[in-house]
């Protein structure tokens, strides 16, 4: 069928729907910091991204742009109230993760203080499903 300017716009072209690109990557052994030969994909790759994005300090490493990493370090040692600290922790973790197109939302933050440590638990809603994550600060 030929294209005609008299056709409605919807009839003149067909919109291509682009699905999520594969997230295949090398597995990182976080204890040693080395890459393993085994490749991962799907939910395991998203879990690795979440952990790596939170552990990487934003603006510190030139290899990453200003959108990658987390600013948790900037909160340590600040003289702010516990309530403000909890809201800032939720904000910086959400900002670190929502830049990735596989992450839909970050929610259900629970922050518990135990002496000089903070235990942060949250849920990340991704294209691979919900992922529970815990961080110790």
Describe this structure in words.
The protein has 3 helices and 5 strands, in the order αββααβββ. The protein is an alpha+beta fold and 137 residues long. The chain has a 3-stranded antiparallel β-sheet with strand order 3-4-5, with helices on one face. It has a two-stranded antiparallel sheet with strand order 1-2. It starts with 8 loop residues before the first helix and ends with a strand. 12% of the residues are buried.
Which descriptors would you attach to this protein?
137 residues, alpha+beta, two-stranded antiparallel sheet, 25% helix, 31% strand, elongated
Layout of SSEs?
Layout: H1 9-12, E1 25-29, E2 34-40, H2 43-55, H3 82-98, E3 103-114, E4 117-126, E5 129-136
Antiparallel strand pairs: 1-2, 3-4, 4-5
Low-confidence stretches: none
Helix-and-strand structural type: alpha+beta
Mean pLDDT: 87
Strand order of the largest sheet: 3-4-5
Radius of gyration over all CA atoms, rounded: 20 Å
* E-strand count: 5
First-last Cα distance = 63 Å
Concise account of the structure shown:
With 137 residues, the protein is an alpha+beta fold. Helix content is 25%, strand content 31%. It has helices at residues 9-12, 43-55, 82-98, and strands at 25-29, 34-40, 103-114, 117-126, 129-136.
